[in-house]
Amino acid sequence: MSEILCIYYSRTGHTRASMEEIARTLGAELAEVQDGVERGGWGGYLRCGADAVRKTCRRVRPLETRRPLEQYRLVIVGTPVWAGRCSAPIRSFLKEYGGRLRAAAYVITRKSADRNEEVFDQMDRYVPCGHAAAVSLRSGSVGYAFWQEEFLRQVREALR
Ligand SMILES: Cc1cc2nc3c(=O)[nH]c(=O)nc-3n(C[C@H](O)[C@H](O)[C@H](O)COP(=O)(O)O)c2cc1C
After folding, report:
1. How far is the CA of 44 from the centre of ligand 1 (A)?
2. Domain count of the fold of the chain
C-alpha cells in the first residue's frame, strides 16, 4: 500500500491528467473529491466562479481511500484555479480534512499565464502542517514538463 495519496478535484480533466501522471510516477494512490454539485456547461461554470468567490463549502462525499488520511506520509492535493482561488470542492475537502494531514503538497492547474501562486497560501489556511512542495501547471504550456519534474524533485526531497 502506498504511503502517498494524490487527491484531486477536476471539472474538465486537466487536473485529473496531471494528478494521474504524478501518482503513476510516484506509485501513489489516487482519489477524487466530489461534492455532489452539478458543474457542467455554462451554468456550472458560473456556479464554480460564484462558489470560488464566495468561498462556499459543502460536505464532500465520503473519501474512498485505502487508509485513514492521517496514515499517509504525504497527501498531494490537486485543484484547478477558479477566479484566483482553489476550487470549491477542494476548499470543502481542506476545511473538513486539512487538520488530519501529516504532510501536504499542492498541485494547481490554470489557464492563464499568471501562476496564481497565492492559492498555495490560501490552501495553507486549512492545513496546519503547511505544504512541503507545490506547483502551478498550465496545460499545453512549453514549461509544463519542467515544472512537473521540479515538483516531483521537491516531493522526493521532502520524503527523504
Ligand atoms: C469558474 C472558473 C474560473 C477560472 N478561473 C481561472 C483563473 O482565475 N485563472 C486561471 O488561470 N484559470 C482559471 N480557470 C481555468 C482553470 O483553472 C483551468 O482550465 C484548469 O486547468 C481546469 O482544470 P480541470 O480541467 O481539472 O477542471 C477557471 C475555470 C473555471 C471553471
Report:
1. 12
2. 1
* pLDDT at 1 (0 to 100): 82
Interatomic CA distance for residues 123 and 121, integer angstroms: 5
Buried b (16+ CB within 10 A) or exposed e, 134-149: bbbbbeeeeeeeebbe
CA distance 136 to 116: 7
> Would you say residue 11 has pLDDT above 90?
yes
Residue ID of nearest Cα to ligand 1 atom 3: 82
**How much is the mean pLDDT over the chain?**
97
Q: Which of 96, 83, 116 is nearest to 7 (CA)?
A: 96
Compute the distance from residue 110 Cα to the ligand 1 centre, in Å: 5
Mean pLDDT of 121-137: 98
* CA distances, 62 to each of 31, 32, 55 (Å): 11, 10, 21
CATH label of the domain that carries residue 33: 3.40.50.360
Domain residues for 136?
4-159
17: cell is 491528467
